[in-house]
């Protein structure tokens, strides 16, 4: 039995799902080896028992799990002799607040900012799926969504103000070390880091300095783009 | 020796400092009795040893502390046989993120919304101090600040989206029970609840439903307005 993490990937194997990155980092945090298996949108419905419609999906030696937060909770409980992802119940519950912040404040903006960069790294089959699904969700063409990119990008620095304020007093969301809450925010920003050419923040911005520290963690796994390098 | 919490108060004794409410709730959470001593802006510089320029200030049987987060940490460490405010180190560090969210996202908006209501409950001496200090900070008259009240109020529901999203899966920020992070957000909103006539959210809004649960906690201390009732 082995451990397999299924990950949505671009045509050249780039892992760009924010939710998968949360689990890549959490598995590394706990020192758990895994195979990272790239999938396309079209593959998702046939992962394992066919019951999943999104990634990540983790097959942990026969135990199947979806939803990144549930996976993190499972890893914390199952591998309780490895470094903690939450540092106690308070950390578990408040990590959900970080998840809610990323979901409601950052994701809607990043979904606009990254829309064409995501499209451009996909296979032809995924492009067709993505265009149909996203144009339905947005109610307009990808190109019309992209027309708002600069306006959305201009709102991004202010939306990170809570993080910037926190980083004035501690190096990680988890205090003196990274924890799952860091990986939740990292995954969110890594999504765009993998897809988009330019960084969003100045090199001296505390958010960018934290992001660079995150990229250095776990043998710099966040700086690697393709499956073999990530899971190695 | 006794325990004294100094609290900025209106002319009729209304406690409206967000940061003091964080500590009122945290002391109640830990079952620690205290005297609540109302002060005006003019009184702050002569609290205890005269070294403080803001509230809360806590005199805990001779130990003096300012800054609400430092007080919460002190209470957690000193009274470690009472109910926890953080539920572990992870909860402590991520409570700071909730603090940063309140400070950077909610406070600037609430400071505009509540500006005239705060002014109206103050003593004449505090009104003069407040007008000078706030007009300098805002760079315009209180009345001109107040002119933006409706515009700021319109932004408030969206700014609570991370909280609303979290409350879809758990009753408290702390999970199955309130913790310091709940008190941080509660204090922020209680500031306006004490000053302003009308609630900001519909009765069916999960944020308002959580706020009502908070008002019920600890014998409904949040529903009480004056010193004797609060500390009793």
Automatic annotation (TrEMBL), chains A, B:
- Ranges for the GST N-terminal domain? 15-82
User: Which keywords annotate this record?
Assistant: Transferase
Q: Which InterPro entries match?
A: Glutathione-S-Trfase_C_sf, Glutathione_S-Trfase_N, GST_UstS-like_C, Thioredoxin-like_sf
GO molecular function term, any single one: transferase activity
Q: Name one Pfam family in it.
A: GST_C_7
Segments forming domain Glutathione S-transferase UstS-like C-terminal: 94-197
Q: What is this protein called?
A: Glutathione S-transferase
